[in-house]
Amino acid sequence: MNSLPKSIRPRSPFAPTVAPGRGPERFRVAGPIGWMRDPYLERNVAFVAEAWERARFRFIETAIASQTSDEFLSLIRNLVGVLTMSVDVMGETNAGGVSALGVGVAGLPGTAIGTGAGYALSVQLIEGLEAGFLLADIAPHLEAVDRAFAKGVKEAWESSGSPLRIHAAARIMADAVGIFFSLLLQGLIAFLAREMGGKARGRLRVALADRKETKLLRLSNGLETWILIQYDRLIAHFRADSMFQGQGQSNVANASTSGVLTPRIQPNPLLPDISKDFQFREYVSDGKTYKQGSGRLGVPGRIRTHRNQNAQRGVSEGSGDDAGHLIGNRFGAPGGPENLSLQNWVANRYGTYKGLEDTWAEALHRGSDIEVTVTDVTRPNEDRPFMREVRWTETQADGKRLAENLTFANTHTPKSRKAQDIAPTNKPGEVGKVIEVDFTKKD
After folding, report:
1. Where would one find coiled-coil regions in this protein (predicted)?
2. Which pLDDT does position 145 carry in this prediction?
């Protein structure tokens, strides 16, 4: 027998509970006594199911585009259709779908209806995408998906079958899915940024290759290529949004039907040192000295740079030339003398060779991989190269390969002639002679 005064006794789980509605439906027994056959709950679960179906067929794609971009949606559209058809919001339940909607022992209208359903939805989507490798990045933010989805469930649950309220519930549920895919994209970029600072060593294609067999990349038509091209823009966008949100600015969030602010995941790119990935050598053939550097170019901004001003002064001081890099500093090559030669300062800073390096940088940021071999040639008894030959192979984001080569004359400038006391090569009216060179010698 309960000896506590009635005024402070805990409420019996089987006591009648007042609920919205009219007549007998206002009083429900809040306890685990056969919810499966309770017509009140069955009816409301049916409203939730109707709203989810409407969300799947009419609003989810729009919500994803709103939370990410039309481009991203176009890449994953087919995958989204398959996923949402297979996701069973009502299935991971007992009591006829009630448990998964957050309706438990006291789960009547006015309680936390829908809580946890967004988490269950997120888990099913992650499993369907084989994207468990992104959990570390997105799991801390799935509460936003759950809150948005719970709002949609609650709206449908309390709709009493109103078409307008079920329509509103469907849009809110769709917004929760949009928030999930925004977190998915942000998490993927944050993951890749971390991978490139580690074993991928600044190579985005390598970082993607380890995950290309997941359904997320394998079944999303063109997503891998799109990321190769858009990676830097996405990094900049998500970092900027994260900084604004950190200052309490909410206007950077994408449009939200649910009213739930989409979290921003801060990508933290780590810059690897790839300087040891390049090879350098010198050899002599027919009296001429060949100084050569080769390797795969790093993407500017994604790798550490190694400019060594002391080494540059040691090469060029007092010469009127620049100490030009065979393989540019911005591509991650070492800054020591093995990668430096006397170079026409105009060509180095403003000329055609600088233009070639700019072209490489643009291609790298578009997702290309570029392998280069740069060779400086010096005549016998001289210490300044008179020419530079460049060969490179570009593998574009779509897999197309291009092989190119260019030769650059390393002419003197008035500044270098004066500093090195060098007379003009040809007298007035004379024609320069052709000098044979050999770029094929290996040793």
Report:
1. none
2. 96
